[in-house]
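REVIEWER CHECKLIST
Item 1: Sequence provided? yes
Item 2: Single chain? yes
Item 3: Sequence as submitted:
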Amino acid sequence: MRRQAAFAGRHDPPYDRELIRSGGVSGARPQRGRRPQPPPRGQARRTRPPRERRRRGSFGGFIRGVLVLGLLAVIVVAVVIGLRAAAFNATVSTAGFPSTALFGPLNGSDRVNVVMVGYGGGDHDGAYLADSIQVLSIDPATDTTTSIPIPRDLWIEGVASYGRNGKMNEVFSAGHARGDLATAGDLLAEVLTDVTGLRIEHWISMDFQGFREMVDAVGGVTVDNPRSFMWTTNDRARQTGNWLGTFEAGEIHLDGQEALMYSRARFTSIQEESTDFARSARQARVIGGLRSKLGEGGVTSVLPGLQLMDALEGRMYTNLSAIDLFLLSGHLSADRRVELSEGAVLTATTNTIGQYILVPTGWMGPGDYGRLRSHLDQELSRPAGSGADAP
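Item 4: Structure as written out by the authors:
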């Protein structure tokens, strides 16, 4: 009895024995051999998601993250390129940024004509005499480009926009003397419009240093040279055979300086390569090689485009915006060229002070460029495949 009384006087333990025995279910004892009972009706069973479902959700989140990062990268690159293009535009163009004068016309039906002029530059006399003049005539309907090299010795007389006599290569220099490079480009485009009958509103000018740096910026150009010839820089050296170099026949790779010499060489070992017509053909090959380095647009053209912008700042000037230059880059490689050669189109003669000049065949006097305009109109109206291929 004393023992029972002793137990009866003790306090209950500070834990629930039944709770511990039941495994956490108050008032229930564990029963072996019975399956766990389902939860009461209306109470959802908490289960972990299948491992495959969790993995699938994680993979989808990863893909979304990659897409978001990719989109952000594209936006950042676009902003950087846009800022770089705007800075470039401010230094080389009279046009504002962003703007475009070519987007509509290049998707229209009328020809788009752009004149490209190269000059020596520097501080010496004759720094702004045009060394090369090329008209790119683009037909949007057929997406083809025709190159029209303009002879430097073409005689200009009786043209209202010029108001004086002289060779075509003097027009750009006369315009610069009147104002600046913009005045020079505008005057050249206006005179060419009067002489050729083509509507030419856009121009691009570049000095020799810019030409060299442009070619070097893309790692040089490769051209297919049809014949081997040696070259030098003056007539006396040619007569004595004091050659400065040789351009071999076949495929040759040119750096900036070599490309400039290849384009300009007029004192050569063979007569066929000593004419302005041969020089214009070589210039067209270099431009075509440059076009191949620029790619077909898109991501692959971004790097060479940025490199060209770095090279051409301060060396090129134009009335086209940076956007228009990008649009024009796809048309630099001509599908064919129209020659203004001696004989059928032009006739060689001399002016009153004995200078060698070229006038339209059948020239009747000042302002008589009707035959030249008719020749160009006839040639440009022919299908691109029916004329001479571009060199």
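Item 5: Key structural point noted by reviewer: Confidence is low (pLDDT under 50) at residues 1-11, 26-30.
Item 6: Recommendation: ____
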